[in-house]
Amino acid sequence: MIGELIGRATRRAVREGLKDCGITPSRSLEERLEERGISFDDLLDTAEEAFVFHPDSSSEEGTVDLLREELKKWMKDVNVGSLVIGGLHLNEVGDQGNLPELPAKDFESDPVHLISDEILGMRIANYINGEKGVFEFERVDRSKPGILKELGPFTDDVVGGLIAGACSRVYER
After folding, report:
1. Whole domain around residue 147: which residue ranges?
2. Could you say which of 41, 57, 145, 152 would form a disulfide bridge with 49 (CB–CB 3.0 to 4.6 Å)?
3. Total number of domains constituting the chain
4. Contact predicate 71/145, CB 8 Å
């Protein structure tokens, strides 16, 4: 009984402390990524680096505007946000060595038998733009442009899925 009371009091105190620091449960995906050192500009720069410009498309500046628009749109989608937040959490769990049968030192190397990170990235890209999004995810995941090469196993794939989905939508436009 005393343990349960201590647990409740601790949770309440942590929630209040987080609120005092400006961290609330309702914060946006953009804010959650920023907390992990990933700015919107990082996402846009990475999308721009990943994007394959076609000579018949709009100007490079116009294309960047389209990329910005697509990223902003999809970052506000509850399903994309849920999948990205899930990947961010799994990355934290893996960093702590708390994924079943995968010690932290092995997790850091992004072992080939860990495929759930790729599945999350592909599902995000697929949700945003179907098979075209998945095709683009495969290309982006192999090349690891921009900030992707600096991120952990789950984070690089969920962010890569978002970027790939946005890029493939711009290709269609």
Report:
1. 27-172
2. 145
3. 1
4. no
35-55 residue pLDDT tens: 999 999 999 999 999 998 877
Residue 16 lies in a domain: no
- The H or E element that residue 126 is part of is helix 116-143
Cβ atoms of 56 and 86 closer than 8 Å: no
Q: Would you place residue 21 in the very low, low, confident or very high pLDDT band (cuts 50, 70, 90)?
A: low
Longest Cα–Cα distance of the chain, Å, equals 70
More confident residue, 20 or 72: 72
CATH number for position 50: 1.10.3760.10
For residue 22, what are the CA distances in angstroms to 13, 34, 146?
14, 13, 29
Q: Answer whether residue 8 is part of any domain.
A: no
What pLDDT is attached to residue 25?
74
Task: Please answer whether residues 90 and 138 qualify as being in contact, where contact means their C-beta atoms are separated by less than 8 angstroms.
Answer: no
Are 90 and 38 spatial neighbours (Cβ–Cβ below 8 Å)? no
Q: How confident is the model at residue 121 (pLDDT cuts 50, 70, 90)?
A: very high
CB 51 within 8 A of CB 67: yes
- Write down the pLDDT at residue 62: 86
